[in-house]
Every structure is written in C-alpha cells, then in structure tokens.
Fold this protein.
Amino acid sequence: MLENKLIMRLLKGNFAVCRLDNTETIPSWSKNGEFFSITKTSEELSIVCAEENIPNGIKCEKHWKVIKIEGPLDFSLIGILASISTTLAQKDISIFVISTYDTDYILVKSKDIDNTINALLSEGHEIRA
C-alpha cells in the first residue's frame, strides 16, 4: 500500500477520550498538556487529553497511548491511514484516529502499545520516543 516508510513518535503519558454534553463549554482542564483535541458536534463535545487532567465524574475512556506521524503530510498523499489501519487490524488492534492540518495521530489502548509498535516496525516504519 504505502511505499514510503513513516517516522512516528510515541507521545509521553496516558490519554483519555471524554464525552461531554454538546451544550457545555470547553473546560480549562482539557487544554493542559502537549496534546489535546476538541471536537464539537450537534450531539456531543468530544475531548482527547492527558488522563491525569480529567476530574472525577467525567464520562471517559481511559488508557490510550498516542502515536504521532511526523509531518507535515501533504494533502495529496494517499493511503497513509489505510496502510496503518490495515497493518494494525491484521493484529486485532483497534485504533482511534485524529487528523490535523499537518498530520495524523493514532491512538491505541495502552495494553496494545507493544504489539502496535512491533507491527509498525515490521512494516519498516520508524518509531521514536
């Protein structure tokens, strides 16, 4: 699929995916740390942030690790996420993806991070800490 091998970086720490009501304002706790992502739709306010920042009582799925594809990636590139998701799907690893203007971030459960790294390395990608 993907001919060029990618350079990726494992972000430090554990992350969580939170769900808040779509009428809530963006909480200040969500914006602390090296990485966070906020998406608002007509149904929800979804926040990905450092696990340690989340107060008690917030609906969330914890224990995620984040792998950043080093960018910037050109919009004309084809098959990056397809290649990665296929590789990980073949190893029964579920992913959650966040895309930005410059690059993509692959989230995997903490319990799957070693298998994820091994699978990506076996495809010739480089993973940096």
Summary: The domain at 7-128 is CATH 3.30.2130.10 (VC0802-like).
